[in-house]
Amino acid sequence: MASTDSVSIFAEGTFEEQIQELVNYVVRNQPDEDRAAFIKPFQETMKTTEGQQSLENDPDRRRKIFTMVSSQIKGLGEGSEKEIEGFFNLLYSHLFTLYSADSPEIQEHLTALLQIISSSPSQQSATRYRILSNLFNATPRKSALRLPVYNALLQVATANNQLDILGLSIEDVEKWLAEWSITSEDKSAFLKSIVDAYTNADQPLISYQYKLFYVRSLGPASDAGKTAAVDAIATALRLPTVFDFDPLLKLDAVVAAKDSELFSLLQIFLNEGLPEFNAWEGSHAGVLEQHQLDKAQLERKIRLLTLASLGFQHIGQDLPYATIASALQIDATEVEKWVIDVIRVGLLSGKLSQNTQTLHVIRSAARTFEHDQWQALEKRLVAWKAGLAAVLEVVASARGTSTGSVKQEVVTA
Q1: Can you give the pTM of this predicted structure?
Q2: What angle do the packed helices 184-200 and 204-217 form, to 10 degrees?
Q3: Per residue in 198-240, pLDDT tens?
Q4: For the domain bounded by 304-364, which CATH number is listed?
Q5: Where in the chain is the domain with CATH 1.10.10.10?
């Protein structure tokens, strides 16, 4: 679903004509005699008797009539997709015209509508997405009512394994949560529902990205915050494609969980190598199993990160196979396999030379970017600056020689 601001739905005709249109749609498939009996109470309520205010000047009577209509809606109806969409758009128009966005009545009507739409047959899923999207976009942009509407969309998409159809992005969610007038608890609950939706849809990497957002929304000192922080650490360690653990340390709840056994393991993956991991694993029996972490996969990760760190220290240089083998605690014959693996996951870029038994490092990722990494970057920038200065000096010298030769030719001529 495309992210848009709220939109207005314009309906033609008088109030009576529009209500008649809604009623006709609801009763369209009933026998003639039943239709007449069904329509009669609406016609009588819309009549203005002597001494009574006109419908245009009587909002209470209009709300009563709208309630009569909405109470008769049991499903999406049996019209075409265009007819169903038109019916609900007209219904939304009256809903937001007759009630203020923060009134209890509109919340009751909205809850009932969302239940009806969400529970409609699965074969009408495309229509449900469309009318729920229209409702979301018709709801005032800052209204708390947008939350239950999107939750309904999320529920339908999850039930049909069609999350991708929503086109959801973290940028959209950040914008909505900044706009909606909802509590911090509601914001956290909404984020948790997105995390669960992507987990159930077997999209763990996207789920993890929202999980970081969810942890950030929680109070770091709360039990929920600490539990979610430890779960986020475990998820990052568990996912085979996650090698950047630095974002975790930017979360207050993760820092607050420093007494957790997994926090000390996280520190190893940020700064240490295989010996430290083996020492930690030996002194924390059962912790990996408790958090569903696979030792072999963690060993692979720590080796790849160690190789990336080694490469970062030797950018632009040749790394001997023997140095790599020693750092990774592997046989020299396995070095090329590990280098290919680290290049494949995007942590390092370089060229292998079997003749010289070296890896020439072109680029490599840093696990964290702190004081030591800034110093290394400064040294490389100074070296590049000196190299560029030397090149400019050579170019300037060559230009001077060329200019002198031209002058000499002119004088000789």
Answers
A1: 0.82
A2: 170
A3: 999 999 999 999 999 999 999 998 999 999 999 999 999 999 9
A4: 1.10.10.10
A5: 304-364
